[in-house]
Amino acid sequence: RQSHSGHAAEALVEPGPDPLVTGKRVLLALGLWLLAAVVIGTATVFAARSSGAAAVTAIVVGEVYTLLIVALMIVFRPRTAQALGLVRCRRADVGLAFAACGGAYLIAAAIQSAVGPWPWSSSITILKAMGSDDGRLATAGPAVAGIIVIRACVLAALGEEALFRGVLYTWLRQRLPASAAIPVSAAAHAAIHGFPAILPLAFVLGLGFGWVRERSGSTVPTVIVHAVHNAALIGWSYYATGWTARLPTWGGS
User: Fold this and answer.
1) Residue 220, SS3 per DSSP
2) Distance between CA atoms of 7 and 3, rounded to whole angstroms?
3) Are 5 and 218 in contact (CB under 8 A)?
4) What is the dihedral angle through the alpha carbons of 169, 170, 175, 176, rounded to the nearest 10 degrees?
5) Statement: residue 24 has pLDDT above 90
6) What are the tens digits of pLDDT across the range 38-74?
7) What is the biggest distance separating any 2 CA atoms in the chain, rounded to whole angstroms?
8) Residue 244 pLDDT level (bands cut at 50, 70, 90)
9) DSSP character for 251?
10) Which burial class, exposed, middle or buried, applies to 245 when counting CB atoms under 10 A from its CB (0-12, 13-18, 19+)?
11) pLDDT range class, residue 209, cuts 50, 70, 90
């Protein structure tokens, strides 16, 4: 497989066994993450019952993403950066990631507007609610708002990219061609977003980001664009709704 930049050549994962990213290590990281999230999340809920639902939710979700990053760092040390794909990239690769993000929106909007089954307007509603953190930003104090923004723009961007375009993609790519590894990792990424109306966009975004990962050998471009994307959602939601947008009830999307 050829690299499009000299420094990316070492970062690209060649098919074949790699003791750094194995199935056992991936499962160990996920298991450690889930165990820590349950234990620490439960402790936080009990300790912060008097702080209000918005504060507790913001803290727990922030903890979940933080624990994901920590679990990946622990399991894949001492070469964590290589395992997570956090290696040097070209500026052009960041531009490609921005283009992939914009293209995903255009493609998802066109598909959903033409064939459904969920109208694009439903996706817009969910995106506004994601930007407002399900309306929590409208009433959050400075501390809680700070937690929400840091979680969305830093922790979620880094954690999701390190997992789906980092270790998961690396593991898949050792066993599958890029044409299969990219959609599989994109499907896994889409699955965590829950609401059906947002799945097409999340999947197409995953395809675009996976292509950038394959081309650049790095997750840095997609981490940057993911962070900017989430920050833009927060700003747009404030402009459009004053952060009052709420997620639809299940079945209403």
Assistant:
1) helix
2) 9
3) no
4) 40
5) yes
6) 999 999 988 877 666 778 888 999 999 999 999 999 9
7) 56
8) very high
9) T
10) buried
11) very high
Task: Tell me the three state secondary structure of residue 224.
Answer: helix
Distance, in Å, from the CA atom of 135 to the CA atom of 67, rounded to the nearest integer, reads 24
Distance CA 23, CA 231 (A): 33
Q: Which two structure tokens, joined as six digits, stand for 192? A: 């965590």
Rounded CA separation 186/206 (Å) = 4
Q: Give the separation between CA 188 and CA 150, rounded to whole angstroms.
A: 24
Residue 251 tokens read as 């079945």
pTM of structure? 0.89
Phi first, then psi: give them for residue 219, nearest 5 degrees: -100, -5
- Would you tell me how many other CB atoms lie within 10 Å of the CB of residue 104? 21
User: Hey, what are 242's tokens?
Assistant: 């004053």
> How many whole angstroms separate alpha carbon 197 and alpha carbon 199?
6
Quickly state the pLDDT bin for 11 (edges 50, 70, 90): very low
Q: Phi-psi bin for 89: left (phi > 0), alpha (psi -120 to 50), beta?
A: beta
How many whole angstroms from its chain centre is CA 242?
A: 24
Dihedral pair phi/psi, residue 93, rounded to 5°: -70, -35
Cis amide prior to 17 (ω within 30 degrees): no
Give every CB contact of residue 68 below 8 A, 6+ residues apart in sequence: 33, 37, 159, 162, 163
Query: How many CB atoms lie under 10 A from the CB of residue 102?
Result: 13
219, 206 in Cβ contact below 8 A?
A: no
Q: Using the structure block, give the residue that is written with the tokens 């399991």.
A: 75
